[in-house]
Specification:
Largest sheet: 3 strands, antiparallel
Number of helices: 7
Distance between the termini: 10 Å
Radius of gyration: 20 Å
Shape: elongated
Strand order of the largest sheet: 4-8-5
């Protein structure tokens, strides 16, 4: 919001409780490569592409064949074949009914089990949405599935991914955070200790 208000000519006082901006978005550099704290890509819709150009960022496409690892007391490769063999016999089972309260974890638990949710599905969702399978609802991703009560294999055929391509940045998602911070017209206060109070003459549009 500070970026867009700055573009409209407002002078911004941005208060951040922690020692850095970005929340769950952040990048560390390790000997094995870039390590993302949370989201590792952005869905580059037309609006997002315009926004990135406005920030003077040059995104790079997320490679489909990129080798992915998950940190579980050390680097562990993602073995898709092993997962597929495990869930194949369960695809004919009936999936739980999908309501506004059904989380992604609720839906996939009978299919892949708690361990795979915690070690694979949630880290994957963190990489895009910045939240875990226990906090993200199915209908927030695929609203057209509301009320569906079918075998897993039929529900999965109805799941559609975003049309936009995933992109990231050469120095990781931290590059986006840095660009947004640089666009602020005003002051950024890190490690702010007190509660934030909205003054009576403050206008929110």
């Amino acid at each position: 919001m500070g970026h867009f208000l700055s573009k409209q000519g407002f002078s911004i006082e941005l208060y951040e409780k922690s020692a850095r901006l970005g929340g769950k978005i952040g990048t560390d550099k390790a000997p094995s490569g870039l390590v993302e704290w949370g989201p590792n890509a952005v869905f580059a819709t037309e609006d997002i592409q315009d926004w990135l150009r406005d920030l003077k960022l040059n995104p790079v496409p997320a490679r489909k064949k990129l080798r992915r690892w998950i940190w579980l007391d050390g680097l562990s490769p993602v073995r898709k074949r092993d997962i597929f063999r495990r869930i194949l016999p369960r695809l004919i089972n009936k999936a739980p009914p999908l309501t506004s309260k059904t989380t992604v974890a609720d839906f996939f638990l009978p299919l892949i089990g708690r361990k795979t949710i915690e070690n694979l599905l949630s880290p994957g969702l963190q990489g895009v949405y910045g939240t875990s399978a226990d906090q993200l609802t199915v209908l927030s991703l695929w609203p057209h599935l509301e009320g569906t009560a079918l075998p897993f294999w039929k529900v999965l055929t109805k799941i559609k991914g975003p049309k936009a391509k995933s992109v990231s940045f050469r120095n990781g998602m931290q590059e986006l955070v840095n660009a947004l911070a640089a666009s602020i017209n005003g002051n950024i206060h890190l490690n702010y200790p007190g509660p934030f109070k909205l003054e009576p003459n403050t206008i929110i549009t």
